[in-house]
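=== Structure Prediction Worksheet ===
Name of assembly: unnamed complex
Input type: mixed (protein and possibly other molecules)
Chain count: two
Listed entries:
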Amino acid sequence: DIVLTQSPGTLSLSPGERATLSCRASQSIANNYLAWYQQKPGQAPRLLIYGASKRATGIPDRFSGSGSGTEFTLTVSRLEPEDFAVYYCQQFGSSPRITFGPGTKVDI
Amino acid sequence: QVHLQESGPGLVKPSETLSLTCTLSGGSISGYFWSWIRQPPGKGLEWIGYIYSSGSTNLNLPFQSRVIMSVESPQNQFSLKLTSVTAADTAVYYCARGGVGDRSLDSWGRGTLVTVSS
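=== Predicted Assembly ===
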Protein backbone atom coordinates (compact mmCIF):
# COMPACT_ATOMS: atom_id res chain seq x y z
CA ASP A 1 0.00 0.00 0.00
CA ILE A 2 1.16 3.51 -0.76
CA VAL A 3 1.33 5.71 2.34
CA LEU A 4 1.59 9.48 2.04
CA THR A 5 3.41 11.50 4.69
CA GLN A 6 3.06 15.27 4.86
CA SER A 7 5.37 17.70 6.58
CA PRO A 8 5.33 19.79 8.55
CA GLY A 9 2.17 19.03 10.45
CA THR A 10 1.64 22.72 11.11
CA LEU A 11 3.23 25.69 9.39
CA SER A 12 2.97 29.04 11.12
CA LEU A 13 3.50 31.94 8.74
CA SER A 14 2.37 35.50 8.06
CA PRO A 15 0.55 36.96 5.07
CA GLY A 16 2.98 37.70 2.28
CA GLU A 17 5.36 34.91 3.24
CA ARG A 18 6.17 31.84 1.16
CA ALA A 19 4.79 28.46 2.19
CA THR A 20 6.47 25.21 1.21
CA LEU A 21 4.59 22.00 1.97
CA SER A 22 6.00 18.53 1.47
CA CYS A 23 4.32 15.24 0.56
CA ARG A 24 6.35 12.05 0.57
CA ALA A 25 5.13 8.70 -0.76
CA SER A 26 6.24 5.29 0.51
CA GLN A 27 6.51 4.11 -3.11
CA SER A 28 6.99 5.89 -6.39
CA ILE A 29 3.76 7.38 -7.74
CA ALA A 30 3.34 6.41 -11.35
CA ASN A 31 2.59 9.07 -13.94
CA ASN A 32 2.90 11.75 -11.24
CA TYR A 33 -0.72 11.13 -10.28
CA LEU A 34 -0.44 13.40 -7.25
CA ALA A 35 -2.97 16.09 -6.37
CA TRP A 36 -3.20 18.80 -3.72
CA TYR A 37 -6.36 20.07 -2.02
CA GLN A 38 -7.14 23.01 0.25
CA GLN A 39 -9.75 22.68 2.97
CA LYS A 40 -11.10 25.50 5.10
CA PRO A 41 -13.16 24.92 8.27
CA GLY A 42 -16.68 23.76 7.52
CA GLN A 43 -16.01 23.44 3.80
CA ALA A 44 -15.33 20.64 1.37
CA PRO A 45 -11.80 20.26 0.02
CA ARG A 46 -10.98 22.16 -3.16
CA LEU A 47 -8.67 20.81 -5.85
CA LEU A 48 -5.61 23.03 -6.33
CA ILE A 49 -3.08 20.95 -8.24
CA TYR A 50 -3.33 17.71 -10.23
CA GLY A 51 -0.73 15.72 -12.09
CA ALA A 52 1.80 17.02 -9.55
CA SER A 53 2.15 20.42 -11.23
CA LYS A 54 -1.00 21.39 -13.15
CA ARG A 55 -3.18 24.07 -11.62
CA ALA A 56 -6.89 23.31 -11.51
CA THR A 57 -9.37 25.67 -13.08
CA GLY A 58 -9.55 29.03 -11.35
CA ILE A 59 -6.60 28.45 -9.02
CA PRO A 60 -4.36 31.52 -8.65
CA ASP A 61 -0.82 31.25 -9.97
CA ARG A 62 0.66 31.82 -6.52
CA PHE A 63 -0.05 28.11 -6.02
CA SER A 64 2.42 25.78 -7.69
CA GLY A 65 3.22 22.10 -7.46
CA SER A 66 6.40 20.23 -8.24
CA GLY A 67 8.09 16.89 -7.75
CA SER A 68 8.08 13.35 -9.04
CA GLY A 69 8.55 9.80 -7.88
CA THR A 70 8.17 9.91 -4.10
CA GLU A 71 8.81 13.57 -3.29
CA PHE A 72 6.32 16.32 -4.04
CA THR A 73 5.99 19.95 -3.00
CA LEU A 74 3.21 22.51 -2.92
CA THR A 75 4.39 26.10 -2.83
CA VAL A 76 2.33 29.19 -2.12
CA SER A 77 4.52 32.05 -3.26
CA ARG A 78 2.91 34.82 -1.21
CA LEU A 79 0.29 33.88 1.35
CA GLU A 80 -2.98 35.72 1.21
CA PRO A 81 -5.28 35.78 4.27
CA GLU A 82 -7.64 33.31 2.57
CA ASP A 83 -4.83 30.76 2.11
CA PHE A 84 -4.70 29.84 5.78
CA ALA A 85 -6.22 26.37 5.72
CA VAL A 86 -5.38 22.66 5.78
CA TYR A 87 -3.71 21.19 2.70
CA TYR A 88 -3.90 17.53 1.71
CA CYS A 89 -1.99 15.61 -0.90
CA GLN A 90 -3.64 12.65 -2.64
CA GLN A 91 -2.32 9.92 -4.92
CA PHE A 92 -4.00 7.69 -7.46
CA GLY A 93 -2.40 4.42 -8.31
CA SER A 94 -2.09 0.95 -6.94
CA SER A 95 -3.96 -0.39 -3.96
CA PRO A 96 -5.53 1.48 -2.40
CA ARG A 97 -6.43 3.30 -5.54
CA ILE A 98 -6.78 6.66 -3.82
CA THR A 99 -4.90 7.72 -0.68
CA PHE A 100 -4.79 11.02 1.14
CA GLY A 101 -1.98 12.36 3.25
CA PRO A 102 -2.68 13.41 6.85
CA GLY A 103 -2.64 17.11 5.99
CA THR A 104 -0.59 20.22 6.76
CA LYS A 105 -2.24 23.09 8.57
CA VAL A 106 -1.06 26.54 7.52
CA ASP A 107 -1.90 29.06 10.18
CA ILE A 108 -0.95 32.53 11.21
CA GLN B 1 -21.09 24.30 -13.55
CA VAL B 2 -21.11 20.92 -11.86
CA HIS B 3 -22.90 20.79 -8.52
CA LEU B 4 -23.04 17.78 -6.20
CA GLN B 5 -25.40 17.38 -3.27
CA GLU B 6 -25.36 14.61 -0.69
CA SER B 7 -28.59 13.55 0.96
CA GLY B 8 -29.61 11.00 3.55
CA PRO B 9 -30.28 10.52 7.27
CA GLY B 10 -28.07 12.45 9.64
CA LEU B 11 -28.49 9.87 12.39
CA VAL B 12 -28.08 6.11 12.08
CA LYS B 13 -28.27 3.52 14.85
CA PRO B 14 -25.38 1.17 15.52
CA SER B 15 -25.48 -2.06 13.49
CA GLU B 16 -27.82 -0.49 10.93
CA THR B 17 -27.07 0.62 7.36
CA LEU B 18 -25.98 4.11 6.40
CA SER B 19 -27.49 5.13 3.06
CA LEU B 20 -26.52 8.25 1.16
CA THR B 21 -27.31 9.58 -2.30
CA CYS B 22 -25.38 12.12 -4.30
CA THR B 23 -27.28 14.11 -6.92
CA LEU B 24 -25.44 15.74 -9.78
CA SER B 25 -26.60 18.86 -11.57
CA GLY B 26 -24.94 20.85 -14.33
CA GLY B 27 -23.23 17.84 -15.83
CA SER B 28 -23.48 14.18 -16.77
CA ILE B 29 -22.71 11.02 -14.83
CA SER B 30 -21.20 9.46 -17.97
CA GLY B 31 -17.46 9.21 -18.36
CA TYR B 32 -16.43 9.96 -14.80
CA PHE B 33 -15.51 8.20 -11.58
CA TRP B 34 -17.71 9.08 -8.63
CA SER B 35 -16.08 8.83 -5.23
CA TRP B 36 -17.22 8.78 -1.65
CA ILE B 37 -14.84 10.22 0.94
CA ARG B 38 -15.40 10.66 4.64
CA GLN B 39 -13.88 12.81 7.35
CA PRO B 40 -14.39 12.02 11.04
CA PRO B 41 -14.75 15.14 13.18
CA GLY B 42 -11.39 16.89 13.53
CA LYS B 43 -9.57 14.29 11.44
CA GLY B 44 -8.31 13.80 7.89
CA LEU B 45 -9.85 12.52 4.69
CA GLU B 46 -10.49 8.83 4.04
CA TRP B 47 -11.39 7.52 0.61
CA ILE B 48 -14.17 4.92 0.70
CA GLY B 49 -14.33 3.99 -2.96
CA TYR B 50 -15.54 5.02 -6.37
CA ILE B 51 -18.00 3.88 -8.98
CA TYR B 52 -17.58 4.47 -12.69
CA SER B 53 -20.51 5.59 -14.76
CA SER B 54 -20.73 2.07 -16.18
CA GLY B 55 -21.32 0.69 -12.68
CA SER B 56 -17.91 -0.86 -12.01
CA THR B 57 -16.52 -0.12 -8.57
CA ASN B 58 -13.23 0.05 -6.75
CA LEU B 59 -13.38 0.05 -2.97
CA ASN B 60 -10.81 0.80 -0.32
CA LEU B 61 -9.87 -2.44 1.42
CA PRO B 62 -11.26 -1.56 4.90
CA PHE B 63 -14.69 -1.05 3.36
CA GLN B 64 -14.87 -3.93 0.90
CA SER B 65 -17.05 -6.14 3.08
CA ARG B 66 -19.44 -3.38 4.16
CA VAL B 67 -19.96 -1.04 1.20
CA ILE B 68 -22.29 -1.21 -1.76
CA MET B 69 -22.20 1.51 -4.38
CA SER B 70 -24.64 2.04 -7.20
CA VAL B 71 -25.25 4.54 -9.97
CA GLU B 72 -28.54 5.65 -11.47
CA SER B 73 -27.55 7.49 -14.62
CA PRO B 74 -31.02 8.62 -15.77
CA GLN B 75 -31.51 10.35 -12.42
CA ASN B 76 -27.92 11.68 -12.38
CA GLN B 77 -27.45 10.06 -8.99
CA PHE B 78 -25.12 7.63 -7.30
CA SER B 79 -25.43 6.04 -3.91
CA LEU B 80 -23.50 4.63 -0.98
CA LYS B 81 -24.60 1.98 1.48
CA LEU B 82 -22.41 1.20 4.47
CA THR B 83 -23.64 -1.72 6.54
CA SER B 84 -23.17 -2.65 10.21
CA VAL B 85 -22.17 0.85 11.25
CA THR B 86 -20.52 1.70 14.57
CA ALA B 87 -19.65 4.96 16.28
CA ALA B 88 -16.37 4.89 14.34
CA ASP B 89 -18.36 5.55 11.18
CA THR B 90 -19.48 8.95 12.46
CA ALA B 91 -18.12 11.43 9.93
CA VAL B 92 -18.86 14.02 7.30
CA TYR B 93 -19.44 12.10 4.08
CA TYR B 94 -18.54 13.75 0.78
CA CYS B 95 -19.26 12.74 -2.77
CA ALA B 96 -16.88 13.93 -5.47
CA ARG B 97 -16.12 13.62 -9.18
CA GLY B 98 -12.90 12.17 -10.53
CA GLY B 99 -11.60 12.23 -14.07
CA VAL B 100 -10.52 9.32 -16.23
CA GLY B 101 -6.80 10.04 -15.91
CA ASP B 102 -5.50 10.64 -12.42
CA ARG B 103 -8.87 10.55 -10.66
CA SER B 104 -8.14 13.94 -9.09
CA LEU B 105 -11.36 15.10 -7.45
CA ASP B 106 -12.34 18.32 -9.16
CA SER B 107 -15.88 18.74 -7.86
CA TRP B 108 -17.12 18.01 -4.36
CA GLY B 109 -20.43 18.10 -2.58
CA ARG B 110 -20.70 20.19 0.57
CA GLY B 111 -20.70 17.06 2.68
CA THR B 112 -23.24 15.65 5.10
CA LEU B 113 -22.62 14.76 8.74
CA VAL B 114 -23.75 11.28 9.67
CA THR B 115 -23.77 10.42 13.35
CA VAL B 116 -23.97 6.83 14.51
CA SER B 117 -25.69 6.70 17.86
CA SER B 118 -28.53 4.90 19.58
